[in-house]
């Protein structure tokens, strides 16, 4: 069997970044930039005040200095005249600094009366002044391809006049669940049936990874039915199935793939949960066959499908953050495969990060995944003793009260 690292390397070597499309700047939130952004503007375009106060010449300031008020300038307007010797101009935050002035005295540091201000102290040149171009200069390369666009980048793009921006296309992911026993959402499970979980958890994981999920529904354990659903996914960039990839009589996904013309690249990875994972390509598109147990499907998605989708989306960082935490109770991993065990991160009571199992680790116990902040990575045949350190893949942002 392949290691997790070997399997991921094989997968990523066969996955390519998708093409670009132009979208409105707000719609680019969470997308990956596909072009370099070079500024054509100077930001700010002129020196301006960072405070409400008085524009002055710093050389004229000092304790008890009295200056004549010669006008006012508000944000959105230009000064009517320059500031000369022993003069001050009323100015408001964001307003252009009048020529002649080189500093601003905050309004709380002066006494104003009868057209004059008396200063309570001196200010240095450039005090409370935002210089022209202090943020961005014309010709600056401000954003690189591969940048994940957050609210800050969108604000900068708008500042630079970009109503639209080129981003990498979202992967369109077709999702198929297989199994005679599955009752889809909206139907009551019959005798011997269980609810279809994987379609919906996997669709949610695709959305979290920046993809567009499309459900192919549930296919029964019949070779022709599975093959027909696979062929239905011709418009998808990625095909993702769950169940039917092990060695049982009704595990038919790999055979259905082969009949549909797929090339299989790997099968079985040394990990728990989730050993029976298939990866191949069909018409140049990646195909992932994940295990059927809900937790196994989610964990294998995290380790293999998510990085592939991020690469296709143009992202540079593909891996989840990892932290080192101290075990607050034993974390056993019996057996010959590396464990990816569901854990909760919390304070260890000594100012550091602690970790404990969320409960039973059966691959069908979905509530243990609900309670998990991360996956503890535990070597084969190993028990992490209380107090020992363990590496944890962080799955979600932790509330501040927890760490």
Sum this structure up briefly.
By secondary structure, the protein is α/β, with parallel strands linked by helices. The chain has helices at 4-12, 151-159, 198-208, 223-232, 253-259, 294-312, 366-370, and strands spanning 20-24, 37-38, 48-49, 53-56, 66-73, 87-91, 103-106, 110-113, 116-119, 129-130, 141-143, 164-168, 172-178, 182-183, 194-195, 212-219, 238-242, 263-267, 271-272, 278-282, 285-290, 322-327, 331-333, 338-347, 353-357, 374-378, 382-384, 389-394. Helix content is 17%, strand content 32%.
Descriptive overview:
The chain is an alpha/beta fold. Helix content is 17%, strand content 32%. The chain contains seven helices and 28 strands. The chain has helices at 4-12, 151-159, 198-208, 223-232, 253-259, 294-312, 366-370; strands at residues 20-24, 37-38, 48-49, 53-56, 66-73, 87-91, 103-106, 110-113, 116-119, 129-130, 141-143, 164-168, 172-178, 182-183, 194-195, 212-219, 238-242, 263-267, 271-272, 278-282, 285-290, 322-327, 331-333, 338-347, 353-357, 374-378, 382-384, 389-394. The strands form eight sheets. It has a six-stranded mixed beta sheet with strand order 7-4-6-5-9-8, with no helix packed on it. Helix 1 (4-12) packs parallel to helix 6 (294-312), helix 3 packs parallel to helix 6 (294-312) and helix 4 packs across helix 5. The longest helix is centred in the C-terminal third of the chain and has 19 residues, at 294-312. The two termini are 37 Å apart. The model has no long low-confidence stretch (mean pLDDT 93).
**Mean pLDDT across every amino acid position:** 93
Strand content: 25-35%
What share of residues is helical? 10-25%
Report, as a whole number of angstroms, the end-to-end distance.
37 Å
| Broad shape | elongated
User: Counting H and I runs of at least 4 residues, what is the number of helices?
Assistant: 7
Task: Look at the helices and sheets and give the structural class.
Answer: alpha/beta
Which consecutive residue ranges, at least 5 long each, have pLDDT under 50? none
Q: How large, in whole angstroms, is the Cα Rg?
A: 30 Å
The major beta sheet can be summarized as: 6 strands, mixed
What's the count of strands?
A: 28
**Strand order in space, largest sheet:** 7-4-6-5-9-8
């Amino acid at each position: 069997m392949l290691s997790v690292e070997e399997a991921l390397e094989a997968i990523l070597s066969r996955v390519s970044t998708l093409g670009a499309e132009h979208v409105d700047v707000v719609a680019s939130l969470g997308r990956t930039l596909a072009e370099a952004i070079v500024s054509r503007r100077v930001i700010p375009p002129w020196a301006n005040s960072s405070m409400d106060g008085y524009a002055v010449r710093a050389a004229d300031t000092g304790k008890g200095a009295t200056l004549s008020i010669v006008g006012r300038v508000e944000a959105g307007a230009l000064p009517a005249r320059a500031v000369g010797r022993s003069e001050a101009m009323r100015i408001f935050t964001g307003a252009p600094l009048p020529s002649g002035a080189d500093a601003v005295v905050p309004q709380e540091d002066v006494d104003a009366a009868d057209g004059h201000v008396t200063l309570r102290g001196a200010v240095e040149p450039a005090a409370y002044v935002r210089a022209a171009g202090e943020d961005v200069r014309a010709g600056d390369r401000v954003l690189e391809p591969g940048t994940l666009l957050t609210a800050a980048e969108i604000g900068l793009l708008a500042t630079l006049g970009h109503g639209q921006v080129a981003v990498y296309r979202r992967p369109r992911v077709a999702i198929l669940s297989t199994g005679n026993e599955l009752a889809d959402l909206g139907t009551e499970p019959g005798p011997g049936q269980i609810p279809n979980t994987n379609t919906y958890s996997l669709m949610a994981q695709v959305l979290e990874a920046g993809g567009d999920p499309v459900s192919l529904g549930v296919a029964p354990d019949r070779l022709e039915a599975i093959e027909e659903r696979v062929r239905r996914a011709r418009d998808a960039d990625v095909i993702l199935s769950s169940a039917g990839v092990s060695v049982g009589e009704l595990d038919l996904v790999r055979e259905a793939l082969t009949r549909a013309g797929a090339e299989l690249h790997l099968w079985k990875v040394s990990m728990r949960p989730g050993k029976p994972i298939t990866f191949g390509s069909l018409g140049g598109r990646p195909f992932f066959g994940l295990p059927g147990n809900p937790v196994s499907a989610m964990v294998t998605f995290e380790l293999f499908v998510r990085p592939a989708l991020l690469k296709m989306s143009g992202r540079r960082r593909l891996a989840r953050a990892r932290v080192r935490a101290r075990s607050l109770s034993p974390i056993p991993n019996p057996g010959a495969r590396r464990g990816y065990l569901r854990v909760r991160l919390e304070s260890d009571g000594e100012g550091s990060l602690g970790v404990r199992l969320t409960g039973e680790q059966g691959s069908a116990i979905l509530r243990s995944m609900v309670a998990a902040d991360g996956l503890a990575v535990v070597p084969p045949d190993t028990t992490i003793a209380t107090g020992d350190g363990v590496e944890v893949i962080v799955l979600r942002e932790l509330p501040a009260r927890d760490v």
